[in-house]
Amino acid sequence: MTVRGQMVRFALVGVVNTGTYYGLYLALLTWLPYVAAHVIAFLISMVGSFFLTSYFTYRTRPTWRKFVLFPLTNAANFVVTTSGVYLLVDVLHLSSRYAPLLAAGAAVPITFVVSRTIMLRPEPMAARERQAPVSTRR
User: Fold this and answer.
1) Helix, strand, coil percent values for the chain (each to nearest 5)
2) For the segment 68-117, what is each residue's pLDDT rounded down to a tens digit?
3) Of 110, 50, 53, residue with least CA distance to 80
4) What is the DSSP code string of 62-115?
5) CA gap 23, 9 in Å, rounded
6) 23 CB contacts (<8 Å, ≥6 apart)?
7) Which of 24, 63, 97, 118 makes a 20 to 30 Å CA pair with 90?
8) Could you tell me the CA-to-CA distances from 7 to 71, 86, 99 in Å, in that order?
9) Residue 104: CB partners within 8 Å, gap ≥ 6?
10) How far apart are CA 43 and CA 129, in angstroms?
11) Alpha carbon of 98 to those of 20, 26, 84: distances in Å?
């Protein structure tokens, strides 16, 4: 698949992930402060994003190694969106209901580059050997 195709699929996963995150955020916002609602919704949606990114965007098999590394793809996203939500709500006095959507847009390019690096990175030799078919030679 081309990088352009991956970017399109990444964007589609991003729309689904953002919708999932935003729905969770709004539900949690009814009884939690906005930052707590943001953090919890972000963490839950990240798990779904991992599987969609693996299967749909890059068409690669999810592994524990990738799952463990995947939060790195969201670390930059988390910093950008959390800082953006704070800036938009507390500094610019925008609504806490819409601030996460605006902040998320700034994080998309960073997340694509990092996720592509992690998801398409070759497995270490030891992992490849564990996955290799068993030899029939005696």
Assistant:
1) 80, 0, 20
2) 999 888 787 888 899 999 999 999 999 999 999 889 887 888 888 889 99
3) 110
4) --HHHHHHHHHHHHHHHHHHHHHHHIIIIIS---TTTHHHHHHHHHHHHHHHHH
5) 21
6) none
7) 24
8) 19, 28, 24
9) 18, 21, 77, 81, 84
10) 32
11) 15, 10, 11
Residue 106's pLDDT is 79
Which single residue is written with the structure tokens 């949690």? 28
Q: Which two tokens mark 105? A: 């847009």
Contact criterion met (CB below 8 Å) for 122 and 69: no
